[in-house]
Each structure stands twice: as C-alpha cells, then as structure tokens.
C-alpha cells in the first residue's frame, strides 16, 4: 500500500460564521432557537435499530430559564445496557469488516450535513440546553465537530498508508484492526463537539461504541444521533444510552467485552474507572484501551515586558467565555506588580461592558452556568472569599437563580499564591489573580508549575524572547496545550491537538492521528513468496 492509494478529500477547517447583526445566519439560528424552544421533545435512547422509551423520564430545562420545560429523556435500566452490549457485538460482525472507504463516507457525509441543513439546529440545541451564546455554539457544535469528522478521515488514511518495508522475496504489511469488543464513550456537557467526536472517532476505525452523554447535554446529543443516522451509520455501531451513570458504568466496566474507554469528564470519575478496570483486569478478553481528558486549573502568566491590554483581553476571553466552563478556561493568573494597575483597569472596563442573560439575545456575552449543582458550588466559593482576609473580590461576586443559574463574572485578587481558588478546579466564571514583585518572575514560574495536580492548558505573555524561552522550558510539564502571547483556550482541530497530562488526562490528543491510533490493534503480516525447504544455514557448512 502506498500513500497515493489513500486519496481522501483534504480536510480544511470549517469557516466560522460571524452571526453579525442583520446577517442571514443570525436570522436562521434564531429562528431555529425559537422553534425548538417552544416545543417539547421526547428523547429515547438508541440501541441497535431501536428507539427505546421506558416511561421513566427526566425533564430538560434550559439553564438560563430553569422553569421552562423543553422536553424529557428516557432512562435505561440494567437490561437495556446488557442489550446494548449484545447489539454492539452483532453490529461489529459487519462493521469491522466493511472497507475503510465506506466508513469514511458516512462520517464525511455527516460533516456535510452538519455544515448545511443541521448547522442551525444543532447550534440552537446547544444554545438552549447548554446555555451557550451563538458564537460559542458556532465554534463548538458546528465548526469543531465538522473539523473532527473531516480531519479524522484524513488521519485514518494516513494511518492505513503507514506500511513497513519489504525485503527481497517478502511482502510485509500492517493491518489496522478494530479493537475486539466495544468502546465505552463518556462525554461531558460543555462541548457538543466532544460529545460527537468521542464515539465517532472510535467508530470510524471500525469499532462499535456504547455512548453515554452527560445528562445536561442529551438535548443536543439526540440531534447528533439523528445526524449520524441520516448520514447512513448502520444500526448498533453507536448506541446512545441515558440514565444512571453508576449503573451504566457498572454493567459496561464489568463486561469481558470492554475494549476501551473514551472519556472526557472529571478526574475523580476517571480515576475510579481506571481502578475498576484494574480490579477487573483478569476478566477482560484483552487489555482495555484507556483514553481520558479530565480536569484542569489553567493559568495565565505575564512577564513585566508583556502588553497590559493583551493580557487583560486574554483574561476576559480566556476566563469568561462560556462562563468559564471550558476545560481550558483560565482560572488563575500571575501578574507582575508593574503591570497590574493597567491590566486591572482594562479588565474592569471589559467586565463592566459584558451583558448577561439568555442566548436568545446575541448581544449577551455571558449566559448561565449549567445547573443547580454548579451554581451552588460556585456561589459557595464566592461567599467564602468574602470571609477570607487574604483575598478580595474586585468585581462581580453576584449570583441569582430565580430565573436561571446566573453567576456574575468574578475576579478575585489574593495575596496568597496557594489560596483555595488558585488551586481548586471551579469550572465557572471565576478567576483568581496573584500579583507578584517584578523581580520574582522566574521563581513564580516554578510556583505556576508546582501549584495543583493538573497540567491541561496554560498561557504566557512576554515581549522578551529570552524570557519566553525560559518560561517555555520551566513550564514544560505544566500544560499539554501551551500558548505564547495568547489565551489558553480555543484549540483548533488539526492545528492544536488537545490534551493534557498529570491529573488532566492521558494526553492522547483529540483531533489528531495519535488519538485514532488508540482505537486500532495492529496485525503485522509477513508473506514469503518462496519459503526455504532446508533448515540448514550457510554457517553450518
């Protein structure tokens, strides 16, 4: 096989639409939003070719309008998860053998459907049930998911074209087999693109998948399943199950057919999965692949040579876009004393100009946090800060759940570099800033590296190339995605493969060839055309 034999469309990043006032796309997405907001949906779970409704339902309410019901989803029971394992195994018989071109065609078609007729519907679903403003929905549920689908096909072709050398009389080849069993995909609420990619990337490589989306993302997950079905994905290849997380995981992690985990979520949950797999290791047919992206406590560090307004903008965007609910969101910053006055002024100007409210109004930069649990946790940290002597809130700190789960963008300044909110993952619109003496910039880099257990994303700002070099080296292990003079969010498929190490995950880089390699089990085939007929080698005489 040669690279020339794998001719697939060249992946190009999907262009982000502006949604500017009076634009056609703005009108179309708001029409979709209004239509979907004013109807109730009854969401089944999908096993094999069946849409199953148990009658055991949970209501769905937008985070920014928590008394407005937009539908319900049905919860699976244990026998349904056991059925999913069975149906996945049945689907695998054909799916694992189908040519890679046929699998590629399905997901390339899904990308085209999403770029066209599904775009505004999936964006609107993300805006409604995950409370993302129109731009955040566009870069996530449209553009990033389209990029995942297209680039994964390109990466797959690159994997298959990678073949070993052959010698005289011998043909060596590499076969990239799907894993033997099913992949369990567990996806988060905060990125619709991740919810689509985790099951799709494993399925693209010939695997069958049992997918459990986060309960607060099921509304848009249902649209993704409809997208995949329209694209021609065969029944049973991706089975979407909903219900009790503990019950579903207990059944799947105890199945001898578990071939892999594709996970994005919290560090404690992932650690528990890993422990359970270890405890069950003798029960599996093969060692399960474990791929996970977990927590983060992402940083911005500025040197005295940095531009104050650039740093302030990175904080305003990096900490507060999507209410700080990105795993890459900046939640701690280290600012030199000489720049703090200017940076503070710019940040206060930015935050004072933010509008907060429903995503239906595109002028709102800030929307609601995802649910009551998140609201309670974040407001609790705000109240504790008001009591502590080594920290103060310089802007924000308000919260109100009477209409929706709204937390004001909040900036905490602390004199303690190890203050609670400098170390703890909050996952909300709160950033804590530590102001340091200019001459201590190098030792502060050590502090950045040693604070907390995470290593997901981080950003440095400096106008001095020697300083940039020093910071890059000192922070080598502090972030899997490292940004120089930019905010620590906004990784693009094919440009900045995403993932972190330490307690932030296995760093298998979603949106890259390295992630797809985790979903194949290689078989080396050696064919000798004229085999020897005598055991004797020449050295024997």
Overall description:
It is a single chain. Helices cover 39% and strands 20% of the residues. It has helices at residues 24-37, 78-95, 100-115, 119-130, 134-161, 192-204, 218-231, 245-253, 267-279, 308-320, 337-353, 372-387, 420-423, 441-450, 465-474, 513-517; strands at 41-43, 45-47, 50-52, 57-60, 71-74, 170-178, 182-186, 208-212, 238-240, 258-264, 289-293, 298-302, 330-336, 391-395, 399-400, 406-407, 410-414, 430-436, 454-455, 457-461, 481-484, 501-502, 520-528. A seven-stranded mixed β-sheet has the order 14-17-18-13-12-20-21, sandwiched between helices. It has a five-stranded parallel β-sheet with strand order 9-8-7-10-11, sandwiched between helices. Helix 5 (134-161) runs parallel beside helix 6.
Compute the average pLDDT: 97
Tally of separate helices: 16
In spatial order, strands of the major sheet run: 14-17-18-13-12-20-21
Kindly state the percentage of residues in helix.
25-40%
Structural classification: alpha/beta
What is the multimeric organization of the chains shown? Answer: single chain
- First and last CA, distance: 39 Å
* Main beta-sheet annotation: 7 strands, mixed
**Strands, count:** 23
**If you compute it from the alpha carbons, what radius of gyration comes out, rounded to the nearest whole angstrom?**
25 Å
Return residue spans where pLDDT drops below 50 for at least 5 consecutive residues.
Answer: 1-5
Query: How large is the share of residues in beta strands?
Result: 15-25%
Spatial shape: globular
């Amino acid at each position: 096989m040669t690279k020339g034999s794998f001719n697939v469309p060249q992946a190009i990043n999907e262009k982000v639409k502006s949604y500017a006032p009076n634009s056609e796309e703005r009108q179309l997405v708001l029409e979709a939003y209004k239509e979907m907001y004013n109807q109730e949906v009854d969401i089944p779970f999908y096993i094999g070719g069946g849409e199953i409704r148990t009658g055991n339902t949970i209501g769905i309410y937008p985070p920014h309008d928590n008394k407005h019901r937009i539908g319900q989803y049905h919860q699976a029971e244990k026998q349904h998860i056991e059925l999913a394992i069975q149906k996945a195994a049945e689907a695998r018989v054909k799916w694992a053998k189908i040519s890679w071109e046929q699998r590629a065609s399905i997901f390339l078609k899904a990308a085209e459907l999403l770029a066209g007729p599904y775009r505004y519907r999936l964006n609107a679903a993300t805006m409604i049930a995950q409370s993302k403003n129109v731009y955040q929905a566009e870069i996530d549920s449209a553009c990033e998911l389209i990029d995942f689908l297209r680039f994964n096909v390109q990466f797959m072709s690159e994997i298959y074209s990678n073949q070993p050398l052959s010698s005289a009389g011998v043909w060596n080849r590499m076969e990239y087999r799907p894993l033997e069993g099913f992949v369990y995909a567990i996806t988060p609420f905060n990125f619709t693109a991740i919810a689509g990619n985790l099951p799709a990337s494993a399925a693209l490589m010939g695997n069958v998948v049992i997918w459990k989306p986060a309960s607060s993302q099921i509304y848009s997950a249902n649209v993704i399943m409809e997208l995949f079905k329209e694209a021609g994905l065969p029944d049973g290849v991706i089975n979407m199950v909903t219900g009790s997380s503990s019950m579903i995981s207990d059944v799947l992690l105890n199945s001898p057919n578990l071939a892999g985990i594709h996970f994005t979520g919290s560090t404690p949950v992932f650690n528990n999965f890993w422990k359970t797999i270890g405890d069950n290791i003798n029960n599996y047919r093969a060692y399960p692949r474990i791929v996970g992206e977990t927590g983060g406590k992402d940083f911005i560090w500025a040197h005295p040579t940095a531009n104050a307004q650039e740093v302030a903008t990175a904080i305003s965007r990096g900490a507060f876009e999507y209410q700080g609910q990105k795993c890459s969101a900046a939640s701690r910053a280290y600012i030199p004393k000489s720049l703090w006055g200017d940076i503070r002024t710019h940040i206060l100007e930015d935050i004072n100009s933010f509008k907060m409210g429903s995503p239906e109004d595109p002028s709102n930069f800030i929307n609601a946090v995802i649910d009551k649990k998140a609201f309670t946790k974040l407001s609790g940290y705000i109240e504790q800060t008001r009591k502590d002597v080594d920290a103060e809130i310089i802007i924000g700190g308000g919260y109100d759940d009477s209409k929706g789960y709204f937390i004001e963008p909040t900036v905490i300044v602390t004199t303690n570099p190890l203050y609670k909110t400098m170390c703890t993952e909050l996952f909300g619109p709160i950033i804590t800033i530590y102001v340091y003496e200019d001459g201590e910039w190098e030792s502060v880099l050590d502090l950045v590296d040693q604070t907390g257990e995470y290593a997901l994303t981080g950003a440095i700002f400096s106008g001095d190339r020697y300083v940039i070099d020093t910071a890059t080296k000192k922070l080598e292990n502090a972030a899997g995605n490292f940004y120089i003079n930019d905010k620590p969010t906004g990784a693009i498929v094919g440009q900045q493969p995403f993932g972190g190490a330490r307690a932030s995950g296995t760093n298998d880089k979603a949106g890259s060839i390295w992630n797809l390699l985790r979903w194949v089990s290689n078989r080396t085939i050696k064919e000798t055309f004229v085999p020897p007929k005598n055991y004797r080698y020449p050295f024997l005489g």
